[in-house]
Amino acid sequence: MTALNEKIEGLDGGADDYLAKPFHILELLARVRALTRRPNKIKIEDKLQYADLCFDKPNRELTCSPKTIFLTAKESELLYILMKSPETLFSREQLILKIWGSSSDIEPGNVDNYISFLRKRLRELKSICEIKTVYGAGYSLTHKQK
Questions:
Q1: Are residues 139 and 82 in contact, defined by beta-carbon separation less than 8 angstroms?
Q2: How far apart are alpha carbons 57 and 128 in whole angstroms?
Q3: What is the mean pLDDT of residues 95-113?
Q4: How far apart are CA 41 and CA 92, in angstroms?
Q5: Cα-flanking dihedrals φ and ψ of residue 94, to 5°?
Q6: If you placed Cys at 56, which of 19, 39, 61, 122 could pair as Cys (CB 3.0 to 4.6 Å)?
Q7: What is the 3-state secondary structure (H, E, C) of 5-53?
Q8: What is the 3-state secondary structure (H, E, C) of 110-130?
Q9: Could you give the domains of the chain?
Q10: Model pTM score
């Protein structure tokens, strides 16, 4: 894998920055200084909307008017990631890192199970949204064209 591909994979995987080895200590210190200039609080969006869906993360409520359903904690985390970046392809590995973390022993098949659960929820709500599978690559939240 080339250095550029590694940087792209790292940034697409959720990193805010990427510093390739070997690096100069002055560059590292400049990046640390830049990070300390960022705002102290990062605003986390509690409510997301996409197409006909509205998701209230703190209450784990998914609404597709007029119906509202409640999601489990892991369903909520997965849906939050998909709704925060709709139409973005996420690999199983990216989803595992974002939801369970790097030290997790979770099997990739568990992601498939939660995707299946969310698909059932979307059908239950009769939403125009769906979770697409790109074989061998991952999942994305999209909506059916009317």
A1: yes
A2: 20
A3: 87
A4: 29
A5: -65, -45
A6: 61
A7: HHHHHHHHCCCCCCCCCCCCHHHHHHHHHHHHCCCCCCCCCCEEEECCE
A8: HHHHHHHHHHHHHHHHCCCEE
A9: 3-36 (no CATH), 47-143 (1.10.10.10)
A10: 0.70
